[in-house]
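Journal club side-thread
Mid-discussion, someone asked how the predicted structure for our own chain would compare to the paper's figures. Pasting it here so we can look after the session.
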Amino acid sequence: MDGSESETIFDSLNLNPQLFINAALNIVDELIQSAFDHLHQEASTQLKVDGSDRAEDLTKGLDYIRNTIQSSLDKRLTMWEKYCFLRLFVVPEGFSLPKDDEASVGDIMDVDVVGLGIPDLDSQLVSLRTKLTLAEHESGQLKREIQALERQSAINNHQATAISELTKLSDHLKKKTLKYP
């Protein structure tokens, strides 16, 4: 975003992507600083190194770890910053601000955040959510029915096995009684 059409449009809307990125980077730096300050304090307390020669070693070790993490994080945040400028803060080609008599800046920024102000899509989304809820409910009912059928099938199999065994036993008894009249 270097003196481009995007920059002009952002300026006209009193938006500054660089300030947003700088604020995000500052928050990350503050988080890292406070995390390592807390780590140093806790490590000093746990290891009981305050006022000893080991306190300097602890500080050196934590500084080394912090610098390693900070270096890796700086590389990733630099890539994120480039991505923001190349992809997020680029106004589509052909975009133009409305003229003063067409709309005001407030009208441009007045967007329905939930549905992006597109009624057809909003109604389709509501419809799809309703259908999904109904499908989930029906799926639950079908799962319960399948479980009931599986239990009934197991009972039927058990009964069939018992009847088969009784039939075999009955045949066996009949054979014995026929042999010895």
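Post-session note: The chain has five helices and no strands.
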